Amino acid sequence: MIDAARRARRSFGPAIGISLVSLVLVACGGGGGGGGGGSGFFPIVPNNPPADGSGPPDNPAPPTVVPVVACADLAGKSLPASLISLPTGGATVVSATAVAAGDAGNQLGDYCRVRGTIQPVDPASQLINFAVNLPEKWNQKTIHFGGGGFDGVLIDGTEVIRFGPAGKPAPLALGYATYGDDSGHQSSSITDGRFAANDEQLANYGGQSLKKTRDVAQALVFARYAMKPKHAYFLGTSTGGRDALSYIQRWPLDYDGVIANEPALNYTGTRLSNVAVGRALYNNGGAGWMNVAKTLLVQKAAMQDCDKLDGAADNIVSNVESCRLLNAQILASLRCSGGADTGNTCLSDAQLATVRTIESPLDFTTYALANGVKRAGGYNILEGALVAGPYTTRDLGTRPVPANPATSADANMYVTGDQWVKYFVTRIAGFDSLTFDPLDPGSYAARVTEVSNLTDATNPNLAPFFANGGRLIMLHGLADEVISPNSTIDYYKQLIATVGQAAVDQSVRFYTVPGMGHGTGSFIPNWDSLAALEGWVEGGLAPATGVAVDAVAGTYGRTRPLCQFPSWPKYRGAGSLDAAVNYSCVTEVGDPLACPNLPASVTTYKGGDSFGEELRVQIDPATMAYTVTVDASLQRAVGTVRNGSLVAQGSCSYTSGESGAVFSFAPGGVLLGGVNAPSGGGFAPLVAFRNTFENTASPAVFNPVANIFNTVGVQQGTASAEAYAGAVRLRNAGTFQYCRSAAGSAGSFMVYDANCTETEKGYITYNTTRGAFDLRTTAPTGGAATTGGTLTGSMVIGLVNGAAVPLHLVRDSAATAGLRIFSLQQSLAAGAADGSYAMNSVKGESREATVAGSDFNLGGAAASLSYDTPVPGVVQSDAGRPGNFIFNSGVLGFVSTTGTNAALELGVRH
After folding, report:
1. What gap in Å lies between CA 311 and CA 569, rounded to an integer?
2. How many CB atoms lie within 10 A of CB 442?
3. Active-site option among 78, 183, 209, 238
């Protein structure tokens, strides 16, 4: 064969010689066979399988092949139209340049850079520019790269793997022969649709240029190496993802494996959706247009309601379908009073209609697109998609009235839709696209379907591709703001319906990525998709759950499992929020407003607030009505009642009528909430328990709850709040003793010592009327006493899954009152307190906190943690959020060491 190629090379003239032509015809048969199926571990085939043969199939890399034709000899050669599968005017190599590994700026090794053209049939059509790169040490594989946007820019095949691992060389540098094209027209902008006014250019963009370029590229590969590739792959993203799918739907035998990232497969549906969004924004004098501030308001509301539905507050909405159930609630919270636009703090009814248009699918009832498609997926703007702000370069424009044609000052979504209407469908450059109804195109309906047949990649019958051993990896971000992931999900479901679940399981992997936009978003995955595909095709190792590394600058390096649709990554509740190992891929979808921790019937919780008030809180789960009753207080009358209704926010948290206090129901019957403060405005945080320790026996026995504890709390007078910390022992007889290393300091933790000098002593007795313990203080010197003393407060001992959580409600005087909560003075291991918390502070703030190993985040301030510091059971937070916390059965108490923050914050773990 090599001799034949050399003879053909000697016969090169204006065209490729006859001997080589015959060989080229053989070469055009495509890549090698596709590997088997099966399952295995993600994603890389070992280079050296275990000697005992128990590892994956032996799949050594093929030996490299050196060229038999010099690079320069390819220049000026041509390929006749007869050797290209689709009609063309033939192909010509314009240049063939040898690039040395040592050339300035070259990181791709030694290779032959070939550039050429494929001539059109229609003289009015532009030609196809193609690029082929032929390495000096070829690994016997080829990669075809797809395009992007409206194309028009040469894809030169020197790129790295899209969303590939950081630092991995480009495929060309690894020995692949690579190629791409400009889809048959030239433009400086990938949003320029004017090319589509020509039929051949439109057909080329729709996919025909891919086949033409592939035939020419494979001929050049064969011409240079005198052999065809063992394996051929196609990699594409966005329009390139559509290219990849379109190719295997039309020519299923040419490629062994395909990667389609965020594919624009329902291309026509996407453009119709673009127009629908434009009409919502700009019709009616631009009443529905939203500026960046309003768009960010929508995104913030969605993130606040849905971020924690996956168990982690990480600025990623992973539980998208549960979040979708909150659409009505989110939109209602955004509405301006009366529905008119009153500024950037709310949305008018017209603007809410725009959000619904972006969010909702388009359902076509009067006509169908290619392959019978009658739906275009909506965008997940209410489930974490970001169409404005720092995580994307796109927004809804800067003006309520668009130009004609639309420009970059207008909504990104509408710009491409406007170009599509003008040049793909009507072919009227001045057409007003706002008059084009996507649901009823009228006289243009047949043309829309015709264009759809040219450009869409929605044929679900991939059986021929699978039968040839073909393997497909699809990946789509659930926060994609350009190409709807819901259209890709629709296609995947139709694929299953057409070829069957078993065939799809054997040949397809479809990964959906929460937080990922269109190459943007709060999470951009890096993973080695090419290695996964090669291991599958060449080694029979089907990819399973992978690990994706975040490429976003501010969160670079955190990881998440790469879950196969329909599963999503759920935080397990312990360990670092940034480590994939602490997440599980799950498929559960539940009502995000449902709370498993709510009582089954009307229930009373017993506890108290930061002013030392002893409280009863009654909850009616049927109506979510609450009643807070004061049982003991020095600030207001006993029997004072506060009541209202709770409104679900998700994650077992509810808004209330208590000056912004959020009520949260935790496992084990714990309630965190707030009540309007007796003075100073705002709310006083409260904690209460469904079950409490009741000691009515005589003599009283406290053995079940007696122990040595750490304590944190607050001394809250009429004008100030001071953090409290220390150690306390509760004895079997009901006596107690506090110890502090430095009175009045938040750094007062110490190992309990019965001989401590800074001490308080006293005892507790059960009050059956109030269902709490009266607390009396006695002299700080001398032995423990169980008689006499001064009544200075009360104690509620919560029982959370059987564990005691004592709550001391301090009522020395109206000006000196407070709250202290206990946790055992014993070692607390990193990870034991991990989770997401609802927090209420004595400053009247309701916010979130997360604990993940040594990482702590409270209200957006991040800090590092040191466990058992300064004493066992206490956790110290560094300068990022200076203070300490204790943890007991899902209840967290944090005291700050700086006066600029709240002295005490109470929290419960979701």
Report:
1. 9
2. 8
3. 238
Active site residue 231: no
Nearest one of 216, 221, 213, 222 to 78, comparing CA atoms? 216
**CB–CB of 91/211 below 8 Å?**
no
Cβ–Cβ < 8 Å for 823, 867: no
Q: What pLDDT, in 10s, does the model give residues 426-467?
A: 999 999 999 999 999 999 999 999 999 999 999 999 999 999
- DSSP tag of 511: E
Q: Give 530-599 as a DSSP string.
A: HHHHHHHHHH-----SEEEEE--GGGTT-EEEEPBTT-EEEE-SSS-TT-GGGEEEE-----TT--TTS-
Question: Which of the four pLDDT bands, split at 50, 70 and 90, describes residue 719?
Answer: low
Is-catalytic flag, 656?
no
What contacts 312, CB < 8 A, 6 or more positions away?
Answer: 318, 571, 577, 583, 836, 850
Question: Would the pLDDT of 13 be above 50?
Answer: no
CA atoms of 461 and 474, how far apart (whole Å): 16
DSSP H helices in 307-407? 320-324, 327-334, 349-359
pLDDT at 898: 74
Q: Rounded to whole angstroms, how far apart are CA atoms 362 and 273?
A: 7
What is the C-alpha to C-alpha distance for residues 335 and 339, in angstroms, rounded to an integer? 6
* CA nearest neighbour of 809 among 698, 909, 724: 724
pLDDT tens digits for range 815-848:
889 999 999 999 999 989 998 899 999 999 999 8
Active-site residue, from 182, 254, 310, 480: 480
CB atoms within 10 A of CB 92: 18
Active-site entry in 144, 185, 476, 518:
518
In this prediction, residues 750-764 reach a mean pLDDT of 95
Residue 515 and residue 558 in contact, taking contact as beta carbons nearer than 8 Å: no
pLDDT tens-place string over residues 150-166:
999 999 999 999 999 99
Sequence-distant contacts of 431-436: CB under 8 A, at least 24 apart: 432/404, 433/275, 433/278, 433/404, 433/406, 434/278, 434/279, 434/282, 434/283, 434/402, 436/275
Please give the helix or strand (H or E) that residue 501 lies within, else none: helix 501-507
Q: What is the DSSP letter of 418?
A: H
For a pLDDT cut of 90, what percent of the chain falls above it?
83
Strand order, beta sheet including 111-118: 78-79, 91-99, 111-118, 128-135, 177-181, 141-145, 231-237, 257-261, 471-477, 508-513
User: CA neighbours within 13 Å on the CB side: how many for 768?
Assistant: 5
Residue 717 pLDDT more than 80? Answer: no
Q: Is 480 a catalytic residue?
A: yes
**How do strand 257-261 and strand 231-237 relate by DSSP bridges?**
parallel
